[in-house]
């Protein structure tokens, strides 16, 4: 039997086609053979994909392979991997016959009639009824055909139902292979036995004690982690034990090849024993620094994440005293120290360099590694020992945009203007990247009073002048652009520029367009301060109908907040059209005076309950305490300096009710700076989609656990964890501006990035390394702490208790 969708033009060119029954679709085959008896169900159904080039013997070979594998399996010409976390599909060619969970209809070569009858035309991807397909290397697709098939099979990011179906499939794990009945295994016995033996061997190697490990065993085991990643989710104790044992064998680590050593550090960053492993590695750190330069960054990224500051700086000090063998080694070590060491260690490194390799100090790329010393308490020490000349050289090497940013933060207008005046140096600057680095400083730039006209010598084009006008809050420059007709086009950036001088009509129109297809009353951005804008936004959404429904638990964290903004924030969640609301305000150990003000404010709201912590721990520890008390079916997050649209909760609940695959939904937000002006998001977007607008189903926390105990980025980690466990479709986004956020350099996220930026980046990198966890969900296994991303020491909160 043949299925030749859309065309029969292949048939004249294929051997033995005249002996086949041809169907133009699966539906046609089902209509004809729905009542087929047992003798027919194992007969081969060959798939002819439209547009694929086929050899003359394709039919003969397909039938031969079908019976060679016992007439039981879907035989696929492509290897298929679906990453639930990202919602992305990857197709490739197998090197040998192998088993896989998912098959593609267009990539299948042949299958028994029983499987063909079970297939659905609309499902490009499917799990065969037997639980797996056999991927074969014969008759591979061309690269072009493979790319076209991948595009055709990849589900739309908006197709939540299909993404949910695929996420629930999981991967083909060891437990599934063990469940195969012997009689169903014999045609694929070699592949099954290989998989079973390899996994059993891996388990034995993972169980070895440190003294029993060898270089060969360590290398083989590290290579196996990728092949059995999903299986090891269920055996994480063994995997962690192996990584810990290997950390005791410095002799092995010192001779592993570079790729395996980098892989080892990568795996350790996911390990529940990471802190103890880091302690074990301290004794070989200096010797590892003499290895390839590529070993140094992952080594110290791992150590920085899991050693105490004292232990880390001691390790750096030891390495600084023994300069690496080459300049490339030195630069790698200096970069790690610049990110994670304290200023004293940087001064020690400079001292070693002056003593041992003074010639390297002639190079700008070396000097700029020491820029931090210019604004540190070690500057005077360096000057006393080595003179002003070395500091001057370091200052000249500094990036000019970094120098400008430092001047802005210090509100030193004269220095900022003198830096801009260096036109020759600024011609090398990417203006958009420079402006992006200044986005969070809109309040400081406005206070400093730097104007776009001060940049005239830089030769900015109209687009960059517009961008600078917005970033610098320069209404005069924006007005000049308007008069020149450069802000006439109806787009968000022009609207923000016009808003600088109080013209909000275009911005109003764009917000209204976003809300047009919904029942949301559009906001209007009006006011000369953040509080003005919040207050005026309230007046644009009055007299809305009230809605009854399940309880929403709102969690708001506060630490020494602006009390006026906090009152606006509390009012916005207590005055929702969704009436059934309870509010938990977590005071994260604010100062005594602020704590008393918070208590008085919370007492004004009948739905609100105050939770006070004794030690400042960041918002997520407090959120977890509030979760213990929450009774709602939905959990909404609200920051103490943000304002929520009265219809926010109703819109989010309505979305979750219509989309059962979604576990959390966020909305768009608009950032408002201290002058009541719109501040831009990353990529210079006006509307952001940050997690501070999230609403969760309460069941999520039962499946994936609490928020990570982290000082910053816990919202992002939770969103990433949900996608890893449920799939990409579980995190939804409403394209409606339902939250106004205060934009300032002293908000929690910006403070964390400024003070602990390298540790924040480590945490983000750990999230990116997290594997799919959807196989755990498929098998009904909730997440454990050992499945969660490891938190760098620098982002761990202080232990706390209720005050």
TrEMBL record:
Matches recorded under Pfam families: Glycos_transf_2 (PF00535)
Residues of the Glycosyltransferase 2-like domain: 553-667
Domain of life: Bacteria
Keywords assigned by UniProt, alphabetized: Glycosyltransferase, Transferase
GO molecular function, a single term: glycosyltransferase activity
Family of this protein: Belongs to the glycosyltransferase 2 family.
Protein name per its UniProtKB record: Glycosyltransferase family 2 protein
